Every structure is written in structure tokens, then in C-alpha cells.
């Protein structure tokens, strides 16, 4: 994954640490935030009450009587460095069979034609026509 800008941390009141992973939402920012929040959760820090991930940020609610804010920040930044360095995305391919122009799909789509952009034709006929093709076979 591409390198992103450093996370910007700020404290919200006495018991929240807010982390802005990115100014805009992206998959990179989301996965970076996820890696860091999972690493923080694995630390099981005394005094951390909640870890809440969002698209381009995360927030940690903590008890300042059980963990000092600067101690929490140091631990989170250390977790960030390790999580970002170790980050990999494990994926797999799942094949989902999709049928087009078969009798079962045709029967189902014809039940709802009255609410369609072109009630006189099928989805495939409509797609072929708006793409300038002669018929479904050309599509």
C-alpha cells in the first residue's frame, strides 16, 4: 500500500484521544486506521475504555485517572509505527455465479417491469440500446 501522511493526534476534553488518519476518506486511510486500532486493542492498555474506528479517523476514550494522556499517546504512536510497518491485507477470490438472460432471471425481472425506466423491454435490451448496440447479442 502507498505511504500516507502521518496521523494527526489531538485530545478532546479530558478523556478522548482523536486521531485524524487523513483529511479525506480513502481505502488507504481506512486500512491504516484499522491496523492502528487493532494494534491498540491488542495492547489492552489499562484505562482505555473504547476504541472507535471511522473512515479516515479513530477515537479512543480513556480514563485519565488510570492512564495519563501522554502515556496513552506514546503507546498509540508506537502501535502506529509497528502496525503500519507490519500491515498486509489478506484477501481471497470468491466466485459468485451470475445468470443473465436465463428463464428464472427473466421471470423475476418481468414481475417488476411497471416500475422500470423502460417497461417494454428487459434490462439487457435497455443496456444494449443506451450503449448504441443493435441487440442483446451485440451487448
Walkthrough of the structure:
This protein is an alpha+beta fold and 139 residues long. It has 2 domains: 8-86, Gyrase A, domain 2 (2-Layer Sandwich), CATH 3.30.1360.40; 94-139, no CATH class. The protein is built from 4 helices and 4 strands; from the N terminus they run ββαββααα. The protein has helices at residues 27-43, 69-86, 103-111, 123-130, and strands spanning 8-12, 16-20, 48-53, 57-62. A 4-stranded antiparallel β-sheet has the order 1-2-4-3, covered by helices on one side. Helix 1 packs across helix 2.
In total, the number of strands is 4
Termini, distance in Å?
36 Å
Strand content: 15-25%
Helix content: 25-40%
What is the count of distinct domains? Answer: 2
> pLDDT below 50 for ≥5 consecutive residues: which ranges?
none
> Main sheet: which strands, in order across?
1-2-4-3
Judged by helices, strands and strand pairing, the structural class is alpha+beta
Organism: Pseudomonas allii
Domain Carboxyltransferase: 7-139
Keywords: Transferase
Protein name: Carboxyltransferase domain-containing protein
Amino acid at each position: 500500500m502507498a505511504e500516507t501522511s502521518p496521523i494527526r493526534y489531538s485530545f478532546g476534553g479530558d478523556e478522548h484521544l482523536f486521531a485524524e488518519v487523513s483529511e479525506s476518506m480513502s481505502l488507504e486511510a481506512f486500512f491504516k486506521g484499522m491496523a492502528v486500532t487493532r494494534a491498540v486493542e491488542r495492547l489492552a492498555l489499562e484505562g482505555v475504555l473504547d476504541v472507535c474506528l471511522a473512515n479516515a479517523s479513530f477515537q479512543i476514550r480513556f480514563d485519565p485517572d488510570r492512564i495519563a494522556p501522554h502515556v496513552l499517546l506514546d503507546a498509540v504512536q508506537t502501535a502506529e509505527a509497528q502496525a503500519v510497518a507490519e500491515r498486509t491485507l489478506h484477501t481471497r477470490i470468491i466466485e459468485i455465479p451470475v445468470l443473465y438472460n436465463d428463464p428464472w432471471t427473466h421471470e423475476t425481472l418481468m414481475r417488476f417491469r411497471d416500475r422500470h425506466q423502460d417497461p417494454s423491454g428487459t434490462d439487457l435490451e435497455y443496456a444494449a440500446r443506451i450503449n448504441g448496440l443493435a441487440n442483446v447479442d451485440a451487448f
